[in-house]
């Protein structure tokens, strides 16, 4: 089991899907809602066991994992070619 103050991954909880700590709400639900044009407020209304601070911290963590200024590399150093290979299409 992996548990932080933000995310828990436990085979006994939602089959090991990463969830917000202290809940059974998968982290993926946050990103699904936001990409589906739901606001953060709507997500929190639909999933009342998730606290605003938790959701904001997960979004900040994702930002720090993905943006070059947090990765300490220049954009040209990141190889995104995998995104254009067959089988790695992104949803429109």
Overall description:
The protein has helices at 27-35, 40-46, 52-66, 68-71, and strands at 2-3, 7-9, 19-20. The protein is mainly alpha-helical and 92 residues long. The chain has a single domain, classed as Arc Repressor Mutant, subunit A. It has a three-stranded antiparallel sheet, with helices on one face. A hairpin with a 3-residue loop joins β1 and β2 (7-9). It is globular. The termini are far apart.
Would you summarize the structure shown here?
By secondary structure, this protein is mainly alpha-helical. It is built from four helices and three strands; from the N terminus they run βββαααα. A three-stranded antiparallel sheet has the order 1-2-3, covered by helices on one side.
Ordered list of secondary-structure elements with their pairings:
Elements: E1 2-3, E2 7-9, E3 19-20, H1 27-35, H2 40-46, H3 52-66, H4 68-71
Antiparallel strand pairs: 1-2, 2-3
CATH superfamily: Winged helix-like DNA-binding domain superfamily/Winged helix DNA-binding domain
CA-based gyration radius: 15 Å
Mean pLDDT: 84
Task: Kindly provide the name of the CATH class.
Answer: Mainly Alpha
The arrangement of helices and strands along the chain is EEEHHHH
Helicity level, as a percent range? Answer: 25-40%
As residue ranges, the low-confidence spans are none
Biggest β-sheet: strands ordered side by side in the sheet: 1-2-3
Form type: globular
Number of domains: 1
The description of the largest β-sheet is: 3 strands, antiparallel
Overall structural class, as computed from helix and strand content, comes to: mainly alpha
